[in-house]
Design brief:
The chain is α+β, with helices and mostly antiparallel strands. It folds into three domains: 3-63, Transferase, Pyrimidine Nucleoside Phosphorylase, Chain A, domain 3 (Up-down Bundle); 79-325 and 430-440, Nucleoside phosphorylase/phosphoribosyltransferase catalytic domain (Pyrimidine Nucleoside Phosphorylase, Chain A, domain 2, 3-Layer(aba) Sandwich); 330-419, Alpha-Beta Complex (Aldehyde Oxidoreductase, domain 3), CATH 3.90.1170. Helices cover 45% and strands 16% of the residues. Strands 1-4-5-13-14 form a five-stranded mixed beta sheet, with helices on both faces. A four-stranded antiparallel beta sheet has the order 6-9-11-7, sandwiched between helices. A three-stranded antiparallel beta sheet has the order 10-8-12. The longest helix is centred in the middle third of the chain and has 17 residues, at 211-227.
């Protein structure tokens, strides 16, 4: 078998066999296939696409390129949640404790952020002492005791994906449904959970900008998950405006804590309830979505979800005083008000532009080597459809480098449009995809 022939075959729009896909992934992971040939095949896949069988085979080959995590020693059905990424997306920080407080094991291996703000691990590092580098034995032990653990992925999970993604990033081949779906699902499958809920974001601040593409990606990932025996469901949610009010690592931790105390933003709470109810249904802790939602509301109202957060932080070596008193979390030395110059209504808040503003303040990474300022970020004071008077504060910029704030303030003002009231209130949830059907709301 020759790589030349595989490239030529896909270039001509023909279907690759399982053996050819395995040959490519194994050879590239082990360094026998050079970047220039891998790049050529990725471009051929980008242009000619893959069918469902090829995509499943590609995902399986990437999973098998490294070690997989065996969670059989964890009692019960293990669940996981994955978001395709957005602005202000601190969902795991609140959803994990909510689900675990209902008795469902939430076993998550997460990553760091590249772009707008940090990833889940970066956010957790705002809590003093909290460890995310855990052995598999520690991970399993904590999930069994606490029903919740969030740790970093081991270097040996899906090494092929790490190499392929780095190559896709510099060869303009990122934006392909099969390549995106296999990249996401290979990591979820290798991480070992039985059931997976995917939060597929759509809008200006998301990878998928339009609804049709978001539903296609959701269906592809759900099909992959279910084809390898993982109960998988996707929720398509809005990312035209940031989720909640907080954008930035420490700020998002505070908002997640407040949510577990019953003081969360309406859109963020609704998303957590929507995703959490699906997880409880997949984990057989609830017999219906309605029952699942009631269970989640109850653990927030009776304090069990907040207490579960404390238990989780303590189990991973974190200082729970940082949860009990959020003033201890990293704080910016400068907080700058952005005021409205007009009367009217918030017509739109461009999530992507707000994300870029947070990045410019230091809340994210421009490269993998960049340092994150955990205190930097933005707190919105208004959401889409809110009434605004001239002089009202629409947002607060949190920064430690005041010199950055002036330009960011201009960027942020341009990202927030004020005008007449929108005729129709936008949706938060656009639909659901499972192994049986696609439902659009």
């Amino acid at each position: 078998m020759r790589m030349y022939d595989i490239i030529q075959k896909k270039r001509d729009g023909k279907e690759l066999t399982t053996e050819e896909i395995n040959f490519f992934i194994n050879g590239y992971t082990e360094g026998r296939i050079p970047d220039y040939q891998a790049s050529a095949l990725l471009m051929a896949i980008y242009l000619k696409k893959m069918n469902k069988r090829e995509t499943v085979d590609l995902t399986s080959a990437v999973v098998n390129s490294g070690e997989t995590v065996d969670l059989s020693l964890i009692k019960g059905i293990k669940v996981d949640k994955h978001s395709t990424g957005g602005v202000g997306d601190k969902t795991t920080l609140a959803l994990g404790p909510m689900v675990a407080a209902c008795g469902l094991p939430f076993a998550k291996m997460s990553g760091r952020g590249l772009g707008h703000t940090g990833g889940t691990l970066d956010k957790l590092e705002a809590i003093k002492g909290l460890r995310t580098e855990l052995s598999k034995e520690e991970f399993i032990s904590i999930v069994n005791r606490v029903k919740l653990c969030i740790c970093s992925q081991t270097a040996n999970i899906t090494p092929a994906d790490k190499k392929l993604y780095a190559l896709r990033d510099v060869t303009a081949t990122v934006d392909n449904i099969s390549l995106i779906a296999s990249s996401v699902m290979s990591k979820k499958i290798a991480s070992g959970s039985n059931s997976i809920v995917l939060d597929v974001k759509v809008g200006s601040g998301a990878f998928m900008k339009d609804l049709e593409s978001a539903f296609v990606l959701a269906k592809e990932m759900v099909d992959i998950g279910n084809s390898v025996g993982r109960d998988t469901v996707a929720i398509i949610s809005d990312m035209d405006e940031p989720l909640g009010y907080a954008i930035g690592n420490s700020l998002e931790v505070i908002e997640a804590i407040e949510t577990l105390k019953g003081n969360g933003p309406e859109d963020f709470v609704e998303l957590c309830l929507t995703l959490g109810a699906r997880l409880l249904l997949l984990g057989k802790k609830a017999s219906s979505i309605e029952e699942g939602r009631k269970m989640l509301v109850e653990v927030i109202n009776n304090g069990e979800a907040y207490n579960k957060l404390l238990e989780f932080v303590e189990a991973q070596g974190g200082d729970t005083d940082y949860i009990k008193n959020t003033e201890l979390l990293p704080k910016a030395s400068h907080i700058i008000e952005l005021v409205s110059h007009n009367d009217g209504y918030i017509k739109s808040i461009d999530a992507e532009e707000v994300g870029k503003c947070a990045l410019a303040l230091g809340a994210g990474r421009e490269t993998k080597e960049s340092d994150i300022d955990l205190a930097a970020g933005i707190i919105l004071n208004k959401k889409v459809d809110d009434r605004v008077e001239k002089g009202d504060v629409v947002a607060y910029l949190h920064c430690n480098d005041k010199s950055k704030a002036e330009n960011v303030a201009i960027m942020l003002r341009n990202a927030i449009k004020i005008g007449d009231k929108n005729p129709i209130h936008k949706k938060l949830i656009y639909g659901i995809v499972d192994n049986k059907e696609t439902i659009k709301f």
